[in-house]
Amino acid sequence: MHDEATNKPVKVFRCGAVQAAIWTNQRVIDNAVVEVHSVRIDKSYKEGQQWKRTTIFAAEDLPKVFIVAMEVYRYLRVRSFDNGACDPDETPETGCSGTDMQPQPL
């Protein structure tokens, strides 16, 4: 897990008490340094006077989980496309969606 005291997420999306945080780490893959992203989705709640977080969601939280997850996906895919990671002429089977940047089935 990430050490939140020293490492901050690069982006956070919130919908009510549900939030998704994007973390970036650098790794060496095939002799090249690349950014690798990880995502944590959790929900804040208050127990007595203390705020806590959980990764367990009630059925009514699921639409909010979906919303923040799609925002994370959109942020990472558009960012990847802007950085040249995806070719706009690639087919949807590759996971790149071309110029409309809509999520495609993988």
Keywords:
36% strand, disordered C terminus, 4-stranded antiparallel β-sheet, 106 residues, 4 strands, single chain
Summary, kept brief:
This protein has 106 residues and is α+β, with helices and mostly antiparallel strands.
How large is the radius of gyration? Answer: 16 Å
Amount of helix: 10-25%
Overall geometric form: elongated
Number of domains: 1
Structural classification: alpha+beta
What share of residues are in beta strands? 35-45%
Report the average pLDDT across residues: 80
- Counting DSSP H or I runs of 4 or more residues, the number of helices is 1
As an assembly, this protein is single chain
Number of strands: 4
Biggest β-sheet description: 4 strands, antiparallel
Q: Looking across the biggest beta sheet, what order are the strands in?
A: 1-2-3-4
How many angstroms separate the termini?
27 Å
* Run of helices and strands: EEEEH
Per-chain topology:
Layout: E1 11-15, E2 18-29, E3 32-47, E4 50-54, H1 62-82
Antiparallel strand pairs: 1-2, 2-3, 3-4
